[in-house]
Write a sequence for this structure.
């Protein structure tokens, strides 16, 4: 049985969703208004992280979606954003922070349950709300990388040392390094900074330059 935590500052939403999830044989281990409240309760009880956390995009406690998703992912849970999904920038931030997907609050309960079940299986949630929110954000959609920059990023982000990337592409090391610098600058310019090699891998995955992370990138050259 998969465990689920619900974090939403609207009690009626929490109660309705908790009842639906329990009917669908999920173990609802927490229902509350904030991420800090959930993490504190989990720590005090000594419980394992919930398999899935269903999180409202915007909470009333002043926290940001980036903070909330990052804390939950680092704690060991997969995150489903449960929102009206009408703020592309916030949805983009949730994706960049590691959220597995988004489901609209206007969706039928059966669709919400199916989304939670998909993420509980370890799969990403590729649905219409998510795609529309991201596609509608032009800053997310296009960092304007050149063909050569995409080639450099594809090889470098998946774990190859920059020297090897340069050798494979038949360019000087200094040229490959300059490409990485330009790539980072371009991502900063569209509001998607990538200061580390792990961040570059995430951007490459978001933009379809690499499909999966085959290994953890090590180091930054």
């Amino acid at each position: 049985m998969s465990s689920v935590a619900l974090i939403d500052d609207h009690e009626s939403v929490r109660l309705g969703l908790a009842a639906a999830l329990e009917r669908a044989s999920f173990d609802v281990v927490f229902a509350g208004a904030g991420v800090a409240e959930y993490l504190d309760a989990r720590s005090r009880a000594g419980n394992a992280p919930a398999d899935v956390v269903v999180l409202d995009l915007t909470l009333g406690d002043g926290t940001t979606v980036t903070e909330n998703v990052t804390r939950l992912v680092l704690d060991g849970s997969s995150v489903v954003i449960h929102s009206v999904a009408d703020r592309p920038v916030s949805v983009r931030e949730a994706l960049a922070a590691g959220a597995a997907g988004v489901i609209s609050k206007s969706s039928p309960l059966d669709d919400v349950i199916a989304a939670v079940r998909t993420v509980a299986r370890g799969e990403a949630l590729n649905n219409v709300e998510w795609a529309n929110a991201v596609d509608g954000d032009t800053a997310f959609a296009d960092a304007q990388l050149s063909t050569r920059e995409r080639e450099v990023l594809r090889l470098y982000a998946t774990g190859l040392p920059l020297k090897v990337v340069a050798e494979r592409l038949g360019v000087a090391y200094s040229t490959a390094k300059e490409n990485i610098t330009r790539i980072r600058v371009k991502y900063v310019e569209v509001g998607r900074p990538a200061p580390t090699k792990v961040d570059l891998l995430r951007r490459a995955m978001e933009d379809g330059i690499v499909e999966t992370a085959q290994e953890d990138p090590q180091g930054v050259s």
About this structure: The chain has eleven helices and five strands. The mean pLDDT is 85. The beta strands are 3-7, 27-32, 52-56, 78-83, 101-104. The radius of gyration is 19 Å.
